[in-house]
Amino acid sequence: MTAGLLRELHVPGRPLVLPNAWDADSARLVEEAGFPVVATSSVAVARSLGYGDGEQAPAAEMFAAAARIARAVSVPVTVDAESGYGLAPSELAERLLATGLAGCNLEDTDHPRGGLRDAAQQADRIAAVREAAGEDLVLNARVDVFLGASGAAGERALLPDALDRARRYLEAGADCVYPIHVRDPGVLRAFTEAVRPAAVNATYLPGGPGLADLAGLGVARISLGGGLWKATRTWLRGTLTALADGTLPY
């Protein structure tokens, strides 16, 4: 039922906004603020556990953190499962469901190799996760093509590859596709129009389109990624610096 609710909230033009949490307390704050879904950020969760991003944290610790978050809130929880931690698709689906999760991000970066996974291979992985999970998980297929882009021209050059991957992933059973870190509005509009009526996830980034602009570009889901965690960390660093200088910071 929670996966069904999460799926229904993906509406192009009226996007689901996800202020990504990293522990049970931040997840509760997201719910208390009125957001209907809690999402996690892999970099924020991993760093809070003492590890770097990119599957450097043990899968068991990431799943344990996700379980604490799921227990702490009454709304659906979707997690950033990175590229699946090297687990077989059936085991990944089983562990996500056993943790009480409604959805996951699954990215096409191959972390051990340090590059993008072959698009056909990634589509096969998504299809296998979908078969194992049925409709009980909302699968958000991350398209990492744009992570190395340089400016609008660089993003435009990468658009054909990104669209090829997105179409493969949607055909394999993904509910949503996530061209992470696209900043150029024209590129994002071209992407959403090319895969319409499929749901598209966009990142809300400093210097990028605002929330209303992203909605106007037709996205169905907006993620902040590690943004809230970074902002919290910046505040804490400044507060600690003030305290070390002898100033009462609050």
UniProtKB/TrEMBL annotation:
Which InterPro entries does the annotation name? ICL/PEPM, Pyrv/PenolPyrv_kinase-like_dom, Pyrv_kinase-like_dom_sf
- Lineage, top-rank taxon, reads Bacteria
- Record-linked Pfam families: PEP_mutase (PF13714)
GO molecular-function term, one example from the UniProt record: catalytic activity
Protein name, UniProt field: Carboxyvinyl-carboxyphosphonate phosphorylmutase
- Record the organism: Prauserella flavalba
